[in-house]
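Q: Hi! New to this. If I give you a protein sequence and the SMILES for guanosine-5'-triphosphate, can you show me the bound structure?
A: Yes, paste them in.
Q: Okay, here:
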Amino acid sequence: MTIGWYPGHMNKARKDIIKLLQQVDLVIELVDARLPYSSENPLLNSLIGDIARLKILNKTDLADPSTTNLWLEFYKQKSISCFALDKTQPENIKKLLKKAKSISGKKSGKILRIMILGIPNVGKSTFLNILTDRKIAKVGNEPAVTKASNEISLDDSIKLIDTPGVLWPKIEDQNSAYRLAVTGAIKNTAIEFEDIALFALDFLRDEYPERLKSRYQLSEVNLDAAVLLEAIGKQRGCLRKGGVDFNKASEALLHDIRNSALGKISLEKPESIPQI
Ligand SMILES: Nc1nc2c(ncn2[C@@H]2O[C@H](COP(=O)(O)OP(=O)(O)OP(=O)(O)O)[C@@H](O)[C@H]2O)c(=O)[nH]1
Ligand SMILES: [Mg+2]
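A: Thanks. Here is the predicted structure of the protein with guanosine-5'-triphosphate bound:
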């Protein structure tokens, strides 16, 4: 199955972002700490050009801390300014503004315009609400909650622009597409739950077998993904006439992964991505 999701509002958002970028001094780029490579929009480099940029590995509360450290080291080696954050650290998020001022090179007395960019559901609006200490932007646990860009004055010297999450027309790397779907960056109606769940189970069996065992009380996990899914369905009571309801079992598994019921999980390491 080929996964892709590029609804009309994203295309419009991309065009709006290009226009707004002309007046932006700094971009805060949010990627998902669980999959920093796959959640980076490949169009971004050409969109942003040489505007100053801060990269945030967001939602670190859901990611495997040791893998997050590998990513921080990876970006450091590439001289990319990168910080690991999540919504449970509001004070650290606010400290970023000082950094933003110095990185942008904007003279004091001038208004600093900051744009927050990233894929759907990565936490942009939550980030903006934390920075402003207000519930300005609508937040929701599904992709494409923000449909249009929105500029907010933080004070007399800083303006923040929240943007709709943007993917790209064709996700070439299908491993990346699957990882994005596992975390909920792609709308549920654009994916087959079972397909994504089987991908997730192959990954979990290889990388986090003990977590699978303890969450679903399985004595053996060295099995085919479909067999594992059936066992999980039984354990979670996802049944229908004649046996396990695979669609329900898949939904239950994805719900668990997205809500860290299997603990902090990272879906990719610097060593497991194509060389960039
Ligand atoms: N665990 C965790 N959840 C977060 C974090 N930041 C945001 N979320 C949750 O992720 C979901 C999406 O957050 P939003 O702020 O709406 O994401 P967005 O990037 O603005 O999404 P779009 O507007 O759809 O592009 C919400 O349920 C948030 O509560 C975080 O650091 N950790
Ligand atoms: Mg939003």
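A: The chain has ten helices and eight strands. Let me know if you'd like me to explain how to read the tokens.
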